[in-house]
């Protein structure tokens, strides 16, 4: 098994990993003018862990998810609790989706786990951008 070059890596990303370039040239269009990049498919250098104090615009909590912890293989099922947040990212029509995994459920299996906000999904609504351009 090779680590760091699978689906969730930067191995197949273009050299320019800027948000602008990836949203314009790499992101998947799910419906007309709606694009996304998921850390499941690719992990550009701007995705990953963030600390709460580093957010310019504080994220809004969308909900809480209780599910089995599948990031590492365990002998027994282990449930974790994750909060899901969204916030604008760099532009008014680009949003970052973040997850915060609670430490309480992980302290026995990952004792040195540090809680942070993992940037897992980027979403862009190009129609909002087009409307703003037309208004000028």
Radius of gyration: 17 Å
Biggest sheet layout: 7 strands, antiparallel
Q: Tell me the distance between the termini.
A: 53 Å
Overall, the morphology is globular
Order of helices and strands: HEEEEEEEH
Strand content: 35-45%
Poorly predicted regions: 1-8, 130-136
Please identify the structural class as seen in this structure: mainly beta
Total domain count? 1
Query: Tally the helices: what do you get?
Result: 2
The averaged pLDDT comes out at 78
Helix percent band? 10-25%
Q: Quick one: how many beta strands?
A: 7
Set down the secondary structure blueprint.
Layout lengths: L18 H7 L2 E4 L2 E5 L9 E3 L9 E9 L10 E11 L1 E11 L15 E9 H10 L1
Main attributes?
136 residues, mainly beta, 7-stranded antiparallel sheet, 7 strands, globular, disordered C terminus
Verbal overview:
With 136 residues, this protein is mainly β. The protein has one domain. The protein contains 2 helices and 7 strands; from the N terminus they run αβββββββα. It has helices at 19-25, 126-135, and strands at residues 28-31, 34-38, 48-50, 60-68, 79-89, 91-101, 117-125.
